[in-house]
Amino acid sequence: MSRLHIADTGLFVAMGQPSNSRYQAVRRFARRNDIIFVLPERVYEELTIDDPDVEEVPIDTGIGEGWATVAAPLEFSEPIVSRTMDGVQRYIANADDRPADEVERADAALAAIAAQRLSTGTATEVYVYTTDIAASEGAETVLGSEGSGDSVTFVNRFRFIEDLVASRS
Amino acid sequence: MSRTSNRADGDIVQDFLSVADLLEDPQLAQLYAYLAREEEATVQNVMDDLELAQGTAYNYVNRLVDAGVVDVTDDGQPRRYAARPIDLTVTTAAGDREYTITPALIDAVGRRETDADIDTYIDRHGVAGLATALTYAVARERGEVTHRLMAEDLDISPLAAEMVLQALRPVVHEHYDIEEAGAGLDELDIDDGDAADDA
């Protein structure tokens, strides 16, 4: 059985710098369980943006250390990928009464990677770590309607990290 | 207009000025939020919990009492103080928009003292910008928007949006009753049993 762990921007923001106990707890968890967090390309772009107003997120350190990696580009020609993208974008738009084309595709990419990997059988179980409840609920709804709902777990990254840090103290 | 209603109008303006003072001074805001959270406290409690010197603690508490946002609840020794609820709604002249200043915003401003991300955000976008960010933070915890929608609306980077949303999250959960969604570690079905062994 192969598990896929997909991480959104919020997970890495919450971890902070390598000197931080939250960063170390997540890295330890990943290493101990042979987990490699997979980032959609757009998430990697968000994390590495040059913004003087925010502290740099050490994502390249995580990639260098081998417990994070950037996902291959999505196969938009696969119907399940485009269906999932559209469905999640519509869901998020509805949650806030907006037109669907305003919704960033990165929100939907998390679910689309899950759908793609489950449909090709390269993953049988998917965990998604995100801080955006609207994105996770949208993905749950759409993947559920594709029959993959039971294979996907949304991880509340706040509770996840708090639990990890607490288990060490 | 009668004299009494004029006086009541003056009270509202006074409330407004007091709240404006709180939003301008993060240390006052932090103390107000502390008293609101604790329900009741002595100056000694304030000194211990906020690590303030005695003179500073008395000075701040007295300023809040003078401003009318904190009451003396017990005049015995030691005196006890409590925050008065703040709920001030500001409406634009056209009446098309309004904003309610709540203890949550005052709490958020007060955290500037201890949270570098909130501090940076106020430097860049002002207290008004933080008020907007707080609205998004509440909506995000309720599953209505994502950090990317906020970034797009406010023309900031998604990373900056995520940082301030995370910094404001404790404020949201302190002041709003929103249930946590998603799984924690124990629901992951990953055997992380070595956790205690390799400390």
What does this structure look like?
The complex is a heterodimer of chains A (169) and B (199). With 169 residues, chain A is of the alpha/beta class. Helix content of chain A is 53%, strand content 13%. Chain A has eight helices and five strands, in the order E-H-H-E-H-H-E-H-H-E-H-E-H. In chain A, helix 7 (133-145) links the parallel strand 4 and strand 5 (152-156). Chain A is globular, with a radius of gyration of 16 Å. By secondary structure, chain B is mainly α. Chain B contains eight helices and four strands. In chain B, the strands form two sheets. A two-stranded antiparallel ribbon of chain B has the order 1-2. In chain B, a hairpin with a 5-residue loop joins strand 1 (70-74) and strand 2.
What's the SSE blueprint?
The complex is a heterodimer of chains A (169) and B (199).
Chain A: E1 3-7, H1 9-15, H2 21-32, E2 37-39, H3 41-47, H4 59-65, E3 68-70, H5 79-95, H6 105-120, E4 125-130, H7 133-145, E5 152-156, H8 157-166
Parallel strand pairs in A: 1-2, 1-4, 2-3, 4-5
Chain B: H1 3-24, H2 26-38, H3 43-50, H4 54-67, E1 70-74, E2 80-83, E3 88-91, E4 98-101, H5 103-110, H6 116-141, H7 147-154, H8 158-175
Helix pairs in contact in B: 1-2, 1-5, 2-4, 2-5, 3-4, 5-6, 5-8, 6-8, 7-8
Can I get a quick summary?
The complex is a heterodimer of chains A (169) and B (199). With 169 residues, chain A is α/β, with parallel strands linked by helices.
- Apparent shape of chain B: globular
Query: What is the alpha-carbon Rg of chain A in Å?
Result: 16 Å
Task: Name the biggest interface.
Answer: A-B, 48 and 46 residues
Number of strands of chain B: 4
Q: Structural class from helices and strands of chain B?
A: mainly alpha
- Give the topology string of chain B: H per helix, E per strand: HHHHEEEEHHHH
